[in-house]
Model the fold of this input.
Amino acid sequence: GHIALNRHLHRIGKVESPLCDKCALHSPETVEHYLLRCPAYRQHRTPLEAQCAPRRQRLSLRRILSNPEHLAALATYVNATGRLRQMLGVIPLWGPPSDEV
Done:
């Protein structure tokens, strides 16, 4: 899939540079950079790390994206950064699927 981050937007001719314009790392703004590396979002990443990588485990895309229980933490992070708000609006928070029918 694709998301409205600079690397993809550059590829389709919507922005001039694929680099992250929020930090000084001179890195392409990829999903990995946005979720795991960008220092501009460090404070917003703390709750995501606490939920998805407890006990000093390493935060990874696989950890975040492969567990439905992490979706609320991911939505909270995306909303807090405001980076995708123009494209996605505010993402509603949801929890893991319930057994109730």
Q: What stands out?
A: Residues 59 and 65 are 11 Å apart (CA to CA). Helices lie at 6-11, 31-37, 42-52, 61-65, 71-81, 85-88. The mean pLDDT is 89.
